[in-house]
Known about the structure:
Blueprint: E1 2-4, E2 7-13, E3 21-28, E4 32-38, E5 41-48, E6 55-58, E7 74-79, E8 83-89, E9 91-93
Amino acid sequence: MIxxxxxxxxxxxxxxxxxxxxxxxxxxxxxxxxxxxxxxxxVESAYIGPYGSPHTWWNGNALLGRKQLLPGTQIKIxxxxxxxxxxxxxxxxxx
Length: 95
């Protein structure tokens, strides 16, 4: 899934076996930021430099830190301007 900032996006876990985020990568054209909340708790906040190497997370270096994802977990991602985020895993956009 690709998310483009600025904006606030709400995700939820897809039903499945893993219920995990496997990989996430973000880059920006200008200085920007990302903030991630899981069930209302801030678990990630980072500033992103322009055109640098992408800021990445992967299984074992988790975007969501040590927060366990369970069915019904609500994920809120706030992206600053000029940010592109690719996120792979068992998540879908919430309605």
